[in-house]
Amino acid sequence: MKREILALSGGVGGAKLALGLADELRPGELTIVANTGDDFEHLGLNVSPDLDTVMYTLAGIGNAEQGWGLAGESWSAMDALGRYGAETWFRLGDRDIATHLVRSQLLRAGESLSQVTRRLCGALGVAHTLLPMSDDPVRTMVQTDAGELPFQDYFVRRRCEPRVGGFRFDGIDSARPHPQLLERLRSPALGATVICPSNPFVSVAPMLRLPGVEAALRASAAPVIAVSPIIAGAAAKGPAAKMLQELNLPQTAEAVADYYGDLIDGFVIDDADVALAPAIRERGIKVLVVPTLMRNRQDKVGLARRVLAFARALREEEATCTP
Amino acid sequence: MKREILALSGGVGGAKLALGLADELRPGELTIVANTGDDFEHLGLNVSPDLDTVMYTLAGIGNAEQGWGLAGESWSAMDALGRYGAETWFRLGDRDIATHLVRSQLLRAGESLSQVTRRLCGALGVAHTLLPMSDDPVRTMVQTDAGELPFQDYFVRRRCEPRVGGFRFDGIDSARPHPQLLERLRSPALGATVICPSNPFVSVAPMLRLPGVEAALRASAAPVIAVSPIIAGAAAKGPAAKMLQELNLPQTAEAVADYYGDLIDGFVIDDADVALAPAIRERGIKVLVVPTLMRNRQDKVGLARRVLAFARALREEEATCTP
Known about the structure:
Two copies of one chain form a homodimer.
Chain A: E1 4-9, H1 12-24, E2 30-34, E3 40-42, E4 45-47, H2 49-59, H3 76-83, H4 94-108, H5 113-124, E5 129-132, E6 139-144, E7 147-150, H6 151-157, E8 164-170, H7 179-186, E9 190-195, H8 200-209, H9 213-219, E10 224-227, E11 230-231, E12 234-235, H10 240-246, H11 253-260, E13 266-270, H12 277-282, E14 286-290, H13 297-321
Parallel strand pairs in A: 1-2, 1-9, 2-5, 9-10, 10-13, 13-14
Antiparallel strand pairs in A: 3-4, 6-7, 6-8, 11-12
Helix pairs in contact in A: 1-2, 1-13, 2-5, 4-5, 7-9
């Protein structure tokens, strides 16, 4: 049976593993769902940072060094915006602005975010399926000691400096998960759901909290595997470790496994965290210990292969154990 | 008495004389009103070509060679838009896009086009007053052998190729002229109204046809002086001469004087057209024959000085002749 992989991804780290998976799997074998809780309207443009990071990465036009944005980007519009006294804390490159112009115009013309994403991906030659988690707006709000902040306000404008106390996903209760997300989870062809090494609180949680998604994940016959974004107590990128600390949780991969709890069947941690494996296994979670830091294409493909092999092993084990 | 000059301008040619006038007059002595009949929504952005051409020109950041757009402009967003299959027939430079982003966002937030224009001009250091002819939308429609076309569709997309039969200014009947336009026309301090060498049919006509403007021009004590955009049967730039021909009018400065008719007191023609002066004078219009082609800053200032001197002469003559 041909197996399909469903990957749930945030931005930078998630996009890296998504690229690895895309290198290993044919278009029909991989569906990537991206968080849209970070989406926002900026300068009148509809910006979808995680979707675009994954899209640019898969299209091979992303800025691999910084992990987001476009390679060889120019910043003329931003300079001019600065001269007008417009907001420049969120840096939009000239080519990136074209993406947002097209998206904003199509959304205003009544297209859904999925339709727009399909068009953009098609134009950029992205062959694998990339879906927004929902066509309905969900907006991640970060509760901090500086008040409740819209995500990008916290993340970019304030450089994650405020102390985090919790999160709220505005609109989540009435947002419908993308139909294909639920279809894939219910499909007998599903080989695994892979939760990419993205921030669990702000990148993965919005996807999991969409009505029906957790239940569908639990009901899915395929294993759910999460890759830890925390390596040796630190995040490769972003505020995940800082958030763990501020939420009074240990800054460890183990705490991430705890966060996902019994929703996941398998957890992938870095070699550096091998000592945590027994404690995580005690929770009934299978653990794969491999190199997880993705510095180059080879690392990404290597991790993707290991995750896919882990998924096969979990499926076979399941098949063996089930009477 | 300190005299104020009111200049009515379209894009390229008008902006050149506006710059000359701005060099000669202090900020409080010059108000420039720009045509907004060419404005349109493009790629979800509110674009005001004539306003921007005048603004960039006065700010000293315009592309003097092509007469519109910005000097040293880059085109990355346009390239990317092309890759998305978006419309690229109207070329928006990266820095220019910043202007449209700011304008669009402020308009959507409820500011008037005048307020937005004041902000943009302020940021760019434009000291003289630049006003849109109206805060209400007026859209020039060109009636052609290819049907009725929105102005930019005719002008840019179809490069003025269709044969013109007439014009319609959508929204003109309910559009209110900018209050300061009428105030200036009624002011006893007005020294002259200068109709810049812009296309009479599509750049000047929308301003004249705004309810109350023609009547205010006729009632104004100050002379109304038009500068011919036609020199030796050709337009320095744009389709004015082609339009004259297609409308079965002579391709001459004289035909432009006829078009303005008794609305104007004085008409400025180029040395090359000196032979037309007697016929125009027969219509009761005073004629100034001077070099009108503006290739450089000196030409612009030179023409501005001559137009201002012509205005003074017409005022003095009027003062002498009036019993």
